[in-house]
Give the backbone structure.
Amino acid sequence: MWAGRVLRAAPSAAPRGRRALSALTQLRGVLEEELDAIRGAGTWKSERVITSRQGPRIHVDGVSGGILNFCANNYLGLSSHPEVIQAGLQALEEFGAGLSSTRFICGTQSIHKDLEAKIARFHQREDAILYPSCFDANAGLFEALLSPQDAVLSDELNHASIIDGIRLCKAHKYRYRHLDMADLEAKLQEAQNHRLRLVATDGAFSMDGDIAPLQEICHLASRYGALVFVDECHATGFLGATGRGTDELLGVMDQVTIINSTLGKALGGASGGYTTGPGPLVSLLRQRARPYLFSNSLPPAVVGCASKALDLLMESNAIVQSMAAKTKRFRSKMEAAGFTVLGASHPICPVMLGDARLASCMADDMLKRGIFVIGFSYPVVPKNKARIRVQISAVHSEEDIDRCVEAFVEKEADATQGGRKEPGRRACHPREIRHRAGGGQCLLRRECPSLARQKRCLKGEEGELGGRAAPAGRRLGAAPEPRGSPSLAGSPRTKQGPAPRVEVGAAHPELRGRVGLLHAGGWGRRYYLFSLLPSRPPPHPTMPSICLTNPEIPGMQGDPQVVADLGRGVEQV
Ligand SMILES: Cc1ncc(COP(=O)(O)O)c(C=O)c1O
């Protein structure tokens, strides 16, 4: 019996080994292709490595000297507050490194219960439940609370964790337009037949620093018998007169039913999240919320830090007021200097630039001036809405704020003068970028001409140029070179002369009206969509005409394989 099994297994052993090897090789191929697509699309996210504590002044690996930090969610500066650190050390000493257990098995300490009670008190709610993160709190809530009989109505720009949490539940899903109360009302009317209706919104939206109109939302909710859920990650601790959040700011603390928030931003910045609201809801979450039931307890040091952060906030208003005053200073100085800063009074200050490359280059230049800020562009924010997001903290000094404003002003002046202040570097000015792009063509390249970064696609370039048609009547294959060709220095196009182009009359129907980087399936080749020409009569009513270029493949022009490849699939558009 035993021998028989071995004999039967033996013949297939070698092929299984080979299969495993080829599966790994295949996996590597798939992963490389995915990674390449991300790089090619210009959405690659890299991490700057901080070699100091989080705070207003940090040290960044590879950058000499101290850096003024304007991109952390450390709104109240409590991440490195001495009392917060001391409380963390004390909890570590007294309660150990961690629980090696989930809460309901063997992972609840007195400090977890104390912190939950403190959170509920802070928000003036009946009870609270801790999670390893607010992402988990959002992942746990909707599935535990809502059934197929219920409905959830969600702002279209809600945080990814709310979207994912809602995906996990079986309730009927309605998405209303961002902050659009008429649309919310229409969706509430549609949802009237459901058992429960839950309106879900961020309190403050992190990309624009805009604030949900909670008064109107609560009014509609009461009119249509709905509950209100607010994610307060970018509000807890600092919005409202005593930092309770958006509901305090807008005077609706008694009308918002459920709040989820984080300990990982203003409240010490370590990690952790929570839900606070009606007692029976919290009890249900302890029975049903999967991230609570199946993930480890918060480490005591984290609990100690967050608990002290709440103590500090409940003792005094001074930190909150300091942050508000500095936010006001930054916003008013930037506006006086001619910049557009979105939002009203939130410490998230999006400095609007529009142009994706300008935002990316400007953020890099600011770092060279000792200011750490991040540029955001499509697809993180809508097309043509690229910005640099500046985040103010209570621990920035007034001089820090002024220095940040000065750096923006200097950079702007520099860019307008064509970068003459810094020999050897090109300015990133919108006019120049438009000029380089050939006024309306959809141009994708793999290098940043301004900074000559090899193999790095321009961040969000498709966003700012995408969808613009080439002028009517332009002949395929005869599109003019982008003006300002010096910007192509170093790219294969200048080495080989004008890029070959090919007219392709048949393309994947999904291409219509969109631009992007194409991967032609099965050929390991990458084609660059150069322009869409919807104004030209297509060869067939369902097929747009497109013009392709691939500077890396000499003689691609007329390659019939291009046509075949395109028919096989477009992996990314
Ligand atoms: C609005 C919002 N909700 C939830 C989260 C997730 O919070 P945490 O970092 O605690 O998982 C974030 C974090 O970026 C956020 O901004």
Observations:
- The CA atoms of residues 145 and 281 lie 8 Å apart.
- The longest strand covers residues 525-532.
